[in-house]
Amino acid sequence: MRLALRREFACSEEQLRSVAAVESGERGYGDIASSSAMGLARELKLPPRRIASAMADGLSGLSFVEGVTVDGPGFVNITLSNGYLSSMAARLANEGLAGILGECGPRGRALVEFVSSNPTGPLTVGHCRQAVLGDAISRLLSAVGWTVSREYYFNDAGRQMDRLAESLAARCDQLRGGAMPVPEGGYQGAYILDWARDLLLSEPGIAWPEDRERFRKAATGRAFDLIRNDLELLDISFDRYFAESELIPGAVEEAIDRLNRAGLTYDDPDGSGKLWLKLTALGRPEDRVVRRAGGGYTYRMPDIAYHLDKFSRRFDLLVDVFGSDHIDTCRDVEAAVSALLGADTVGRTLRTVIHQFVTLSRGGETVRMSTRSGEFVTLRDLVDEVGSPDVTRFLFLTRRAEAHMDFDLAVARKDSEENPVFYIQYAFARIGGILRAAGDRFRDTDAGQAADLLREPRERVLLRLLEALPVRVSEAAADLSPHRITETASELATAFHGFYTQHKVMDEGNPSLTRARMLLCLACREGLKGLLEVLGISAPERM
RNA sequence: GCCCCUGUAGCUCAGUUGGAUAGAGCGGCGGUUUCCUAAACCGUAGGCCACAUGUUCAAGUCAUGUCAGGGGCACCA
Question: Which nucleotide shows the minimum CA-to-C1' distance to residue A541?
Fold first, then answer.
C-alpha cells in the first residue's frame, strides 16, 4: 500500500508513516480499514477516493488479502483471506500466544514499582486496585518481551514509622495496666493490640522510649507479614522491597549535592536551616522544603534519590504506579530528576500510571476509610466478600486506571455470582470438554484444510479475532492498559460461545470438518489461556 | 482560591488515539435444551455521548469556557 502511494504520488516518508489500518468492527466494511486517504487528500491536493484507489491497487495482489474496496468518502476496506486467517489460527494453536508474541524478541529490562504502601497496617481496598493493576502491567510487559522486575518501595525512616512504634508501645503499656496514650496521629487499628500481646510474650520487659528501635523493628516486621500475606492471597510477589533507609543519608545527600550544583536549591531566607528545592524554576507551581530545620528529609527528597537510584540501575523502562493522591509529588520528583538527567532520558524511560481512587459503599452508603483511625476495609475482607481472587482481579482490571471506581460491596457480591470472569473461564472449560471428548483424535493442526472449511460467519468472527490477538496485546502493553486485555478476553469468549452454540465441533461422520473446527478450538484455547495469564486469572479445564 | 482526574443506556463501564449506523455486561421484556457443559445462545426495548462555543471534509474523541463529582494543594507518607 505504501509502495503504491510512493510510486503514484511521491509521498514523503512522514506521510507514509501516517498510513495505518485498524480493525473495522462489525459494520460490514471488511476486516481492517484505513481512513488514511482522507488525511492525505489535503496534503497531496488530490481527491481522497483517487488516493484510496491507489492504495487498494497496491493491496489487491497480496496473499493475505481476499478483497479490497473503496467506500464512502475514501475508506479502504480490506477483507482478509481465509487462508491467511487459518494459518494464523494454526500458529496460535501450535505456538501459543506467548510463542507468537515472543517472536518480536526481547525488549529490554523494565522495572515496575507499585503498591509501595508504608508498612503500618494491612492493605486496604485502595491498595488492592494498585496491587492488581501493577501486577497486571508487569505481566503484560513480560508477555510482550520485557524482562520485568517488580519493586516495592517503602518509607521506613519517616515520622509515620515513629508514630507506629509509639502506638505499639502505648498498647503494650496499656496491656500492662499503664496509661500511655496512643499518640496524636497514631494508629488506632485493632491489629496493633495483637502485635502488642505477642510482643509482650517474647519481650516482657520492653519499655518506651528506651527500646524505641525494638518497637520499630517489631512493628515493621509485623506489618510486612500482613502485607505479604495479603499480596499472596492475590498471588502477587515482588523481586525487591526497597527501604527508604537504604538511601539515608548517603544517596540522599548525594542527590542534594547534585541538585545544589544544578542551582536548584536554596537555604531558607529566615536562616532556620531549612533547604528548599526550586521547583518553580522547573515549571512546577510551588517550591518545596526538602530538608527540615532539624535535618530530617521530607517525603520528596528520598523519593528523588530513589528515582536516581532506579535510573542508575540502567533499566530501559521505569514504570511507577501511583494513586491519585501522589500526583503532585510525583510530578515534582519527575521534574527534579529530569533536571538532573535530562528531560529526554527521563521522558523516554519513565512512565507514570496514576489511578483514581476506589470509593467504597455498602448498600449505597459510602464507607470512609483511614489506616490511622483504624477504619478501613482490608484487601482480605474484599476478597472474602467478592468471593475469589480471580473475580477481585477482574473487577479492578475492567476499568482503565484513570476511571473512578464506585465499588458497592453488596453489588460486587451479587455480580460475582454471575460474572464476566466465569463467562470467560466457562468458554475455556467448554473447550476442555471438547478436548476430553475428542481424546487424541482430530488434533492435527493443518491450516490448509481449515481454510476451505471454516466459512460460517461465527467461525470467521473467531478467526479474525484470533488473528488480532497479538496486536491487541502489544497495543495494551504499549499503553500500559491491562483493561484492554479484559475487554479482549470477554470478546473472545463471546465469539467462542456463539460458535459453540451454533456449530457442533465433534462430528464422527465428517472428520475433516471436525479437524478444522478442532483447530479453531485449539487456537481459541491458546488465546484465552494467554490472555488470562496476563490478567493473572486461572484457566480451569472444567467448571 | 489553585492543580490533576472524571462526566457515554436505569446501573457499572468500553469506545481501536479524529472516521462510516456510539458498544458490552448487569437489570427489563420475549424466546432457545434428545446433541461436545444452558455459568450459554438468540431477539427486543433503552442515548441531546453533562452543557456551550470553536477547530475541519469528518468530533464521544482535539481547544476554550460553564456546571457537577472525586482527589490533591504539609516542614505526614
Answer: B37
